[in-house]
Write a structure and sequence with these properties.
Shape: globular
CATH topology of the largest domain: D-amino Acid Aminotransferase, Chain A, domain 1
Largest sheet: 8 strands, antiparallel
Order of helices and strands: EEEEEHEHEEEHEEEEEHHEEEHH
Helix content: 25-40%
Distance between the termini: 25 Å
CATH superfamily of the largest domain: ATP-grasp fold, B domain
Number of strands: 17
Structural class: alpha+beta
Number of helices: 7
Strand content: 25-35%
CATH architecture of the largest domain: 2-Layer Sandwich
Number of domains: 2
Length: 292
Amino acid sequence: MAQILMDTDLKDVKFLRRGKVRDVYETDDYLLIIATDRVSAFDVVLPNGIPDKGRILTQISIYWFNRMKDIIENHIVATDVKDYPKVLHKYKDILEGRSMLVKKAMPMPVECIVRGYLSGSGWKEYKKSGTVCGIKLPDGLVESARLDEPIFTPSTKAEEGHDINISFDETRKIVGDDTANKLRDTSLRVYKKAREMAEKKGIIIADTKMEFGLYNDKLLLIDEILTPDSSRFWSMKDYKPGKSQDSFDKQIVRDYLLTLDWNQTYPGPKLPDEIVEKTAARYREIWGILTE
């Protein structure tokens, strides 16, 4: 099995923070984001990761960032280590393919989620109230149904645990009317363009989560975009509304963990080699389909 990068240690570079998947460092003018192979489930980072997951997430993000430039600029400064500050060159073996040098944008305090299909927490809310994030949807929709028009369903960012879905009115109170409108309109444009591109390759993008940041008073697309960790990808040929769909992501991991007697708190259980290999193959598969 390929070597798995769980943590980074760039000894002479300022370390900022460690997320569930990404480690962030700071150079004089930029941030360095490194995607590790860590995998989380039920908000718990598991003891072992998925080989090359970080490289795949990074390469998919770069692919989409480049294709959305006509809609909105992004935070990328460089993705090739030779173009990074010299202090980082000696870490090429760690950084190559799984890192991005980016502008120091100030992240917006809301996550921007677009749903084109009724799934996940949206489906749960719809069953109870006929709404998703306060948006009234037609009666009689089934699980995984395609929505006539994609909807913008933002959430607040949580340092720990699950993010909390909020209404568009609440978004306007948090960021102001103009910024809220721009976040919504840009998110919908990015989703619609990506959906059209993916459908030509036989892939449904059921929903996706985006992050935006302010840099010199300009809104930029930041973090990751349209990856298996931030989106639900389904196969068009296998799509059957009325039930949950098989996703190109870490669903294999979640399904395995649900068979265990585990209370979904730290420390998480170690994944067997078979589950790790199957999940790695799933990530590689969607990477190949999307970026071919």
